[in-house]
Amino acid sequence: MSNPIVSSLFSAKGLEQSVLGRYRLPGQVGCRFLTGGVNDTYLVTTDDERYFLRLYRFGWRSKPEIEAEVDMLVHLASGRQAVSRPIPRSDGRFLTRVSAPEGTRWAVVFSDAPGTPPRLNASKAREYGEVVGDMHVCADRKPLDTRRFHLDFAHLLEDPLAHMEPFLRHRAEDRQFLTGVSEDLKSGIESLLPTEAPEDGFCHGDHHIMVATCIEMPRGDWLFLISIAMGMDGEHTIFPFYCGN
Fold it and tell me: How much of the chain, in percent, has pLDDT values that exceed 90?
């Protein structure tokens, strides 16, 4: 009996051939593994440019969900938001199928968004918030994409409880407690949270400072960059999304 593979790690050299060979990247192309996590990220270098190759984990996102993510970044770029944009292949497509032992995975290449860890003060935090707000205004101009999951009560409360239920069958009191907490949260959110734009609509995660970088510009302005949103004193860059509706 063979042991099933949960997550494989691809060599950077192999991805140079199977994925990056489909792009018209300028000059000599190099690739090295950068970090693993929910997805695997590789740093791609050419003579003058840097890119990032994201290899989505098997089972984490479907092809339509990834395409919706890419479409949103393309929309933001066309709306004059300085986003870390997906790079098209030579054939104009964005996704590359990668056959892995655990199943099909998908690769996308994104443009660079350079920077260093920021030290925000109140003024810079306000500027950063304004940039994020501008991005959301642009995102709201795009109709909600049904290919992405909805951050609703089913996703946040009901489904997690359903997954936990088999482990709580012998702990009725704990199960009752968690069910009560879920019902209280649902009631509280329904009474407080608006259900119309701009409060309700497209959203994404991880705007916290732990995933941010920034660049001080020559004229004293700042370029803020994070794994989701990045920017330059009003020119902010958006990197690969974790998003929903």
Answer: 45
